[in-house]
Structure formats: structure tokens, C-alpha cells
Amino acid sequence: MQRPRFELPEALVMEILSKLPVKSLTRFNCVCKYWCSSFQTPHFISNNYHNNLQNNNLNLLLSRCDGNTFQPYFSQLSTEKDQNYIVKQNIHLPFFKNDTPSLYGACHGLMCLLDPSKDKAAIWNPSTREFKILPPSSIQRPPYFSPFEETYLTLDDVEFYHAAFGFDSKTDDYKVIRFVSLTFVNSEEEHPHPHSMYQVELYSLRSNSWKEIPYPEYTPTYTTLGNIYVDGICYWKTETGAYLDFRGLILSFDMGNEKFSILPIPEFVGSFPEYYVDLLVFNGSLGAIVYPSERIDTSFDLWVTSEGVWTKQFNIKSISGVVHPLGFGKNGDLFVRDTNNEVLLFDASTQELKELEINTYLDHIWAVITLHAYFESLVHINGVQEVEKHVIRQPTRDASNEY
Fold first, then answer.
1. Fewer CB atoms inside 10 A, N or C side of the chain?
2. How far is CA 363 from the centre of its chain?
């Protein structure tokens, strides 16, 4: 006797599939046209992403640069403690070959890469390997008139820095903001004195174009760890006053109304220059790691803000040899860099410092080593697919010396 055929409702099948990793869903695109088209619907993409959030399926990327070849690459780390955060694979990005891009994000599983010395940027989905190279800036660079030299100066250099990447829920649009520094000189002088002007540019994925927005009163500083985007707002640390009258502030930008604002840094951070303050995102909220500038037996305080109220989460006391925090993994584990440029892990549950199986002896450019956390996403950016040959898989050990 033939058994009756049992079929699950399509809605239930889609619900089950939405709980799977992006890598599995990519394979299942070939099962049937219905599945392939369903995986691209906003409803399925949203369900899959929120399932990853709910299950805390955090992914970690270590941004690095080979000190011999100066080639940028990213090491994807395992997030399972029993694997001791080993490197699963190294990823090279061909569209930034011979450049050293900075990585910004993540937002809905997407990241932005920006070359500070060139008008070169891209949006990247590390889960689907899709990337979109952004168009060059169309912003006018006005001539600079020097009242002291009574002449117009020549544009000598353009730099792009302090970028941020986020989502505008009002228009359902992903945006990139970056600060631009323009350097002008008198080309007729043998040793010209440089003059600077500043701009802010905003990119819209929906329009695929850049536009200039008003420059804020304050300029960001380089003290953020990984992502600085929370619920439609981007954050940077800034400052005002002279050395002895220094005052730290937080500069914010609303992706929706495209306006800058200033927030105070509370008194808890201590006085400058005895303490450093690095901004980061911790469990979906804006946080600040505060640590002394004296780099022997460094201790760390983590503060998190909610509706403008800062609360101290925990204190890590006297980690010998650690010089800089990199960011957090799962369950409050803190990644740090020591005096030998090694990446270590402070286990919050055991209060122990662990060496990781990550070879950093080739990463001589220590400033490039940054940690980025993201959740997998199927979000499409109308880009192109990254070539698989640029992914070097290392299931058991690091491959930073195997190029």
C-alpha cells in the first residue's frame, strides 16, 4: 500500500528556511524558481535577518593589512568558544587591490569600504559576497581665494575620512556620509603654505549619487571602534577647547533628517589627557570604553547610554601588556591588542586573558587591525558578485602567511 504524500504548507516551509544561514540559502537557490524568488522578497529577507538577531548569530571580521605586500584583507573569525575564535577564512577584495580601505558599518549586514586617499568607495555584503562600487563624487570643489596672498590657490590634495554608513527608514534608503578635506596651495611658490577647506558628502543608494550637506561646527576624531551606527543615527567623538580646557563631545548625524547634533560626554570619563574614550555599539546601544592613557596594566570601563542616560556595564581591571581595545564578540568577550601587536581575548565569564590562533606577525601596520561585528543578511544592493577565488578558506588555522 502506497503511503500518502505529506506536504508542508509553503508558508511553513518559508518560515523554516528563514532560520537557516545565508550560505545554505544561497545553495538552495537552485532547488526551484519559487524558492529562489522567495528568498529575494523583502518579507523573507527581513525574517531571516531578525532570526539572526534574535539568535545572536554574530559574525566577526578582522580587518588587516599584510606588512610585506601591503595588501588589505579580512579574516573571518569563528564565533564558537570551543574553537577559540580561530580564523575560518581570509577574504581579499579585488576592487580595492593595492589600496588600504577603511571599513565602516555594519547596518543590516551591509558594510561600507572607503579609501581615504582616493575617491573610491563600495558597499559590501560579506554574507552574499555582493558588492557595489559607488560612483565618484559629483560635488564641486570651489576655488580658494587667499586674502593674505591676494590670489586664488590651486587644489593640491583631497582626502576622505570619518565616514559612516546607515539606513534611512523614512525613505527606505542606505546612505554613506564622509568628511572631505581639501588642501590648496599657491602653485607659483617654491614652498607654498597649504590652506585647508572642508566639506561633507552624503551618498544615497536609492539615487546612486552624492550630494553636499552643510559642514557641522565640530570635526570628528579617530576614536571609534567598528560600527558607530544605532537606529538611524551615526556617532563620532569630537572635542572643543584648548589642551588645558579640553572638553569631549559626541557628534551625531540623523540619516533621516540629515542633520548634525551635539551630545555631551558625561563626567564619568575622567579628565583629558589621562583617559581615552572610544565609542562603539554594544548590544544595540551606543557605548563608550574608557581607559587610561598610561598603557601599563590597563583597565577598561564600559558605559552604555539609553535615552540619554549613561550606565556603567562592567569594569575590567589591570590587563597587563594590553594597549588598545578592538571591540566585543559574543557574551561580552572583549578583543584587545597587546604591545606585541597580537590579538587577545578577555573572557568576561572567567575573567581570563586568552591567546588566539591568529598570526599577526605579518600585520606590521597595527593601525589597520580593526574588529567588525555583523549579522548575516540577504539584503541586495544591486551590485555584482565577488569572485570566489578571492576567498581563501582556512578551517583550522590562520593563513596570513599563505598568499
1. N
2. 19
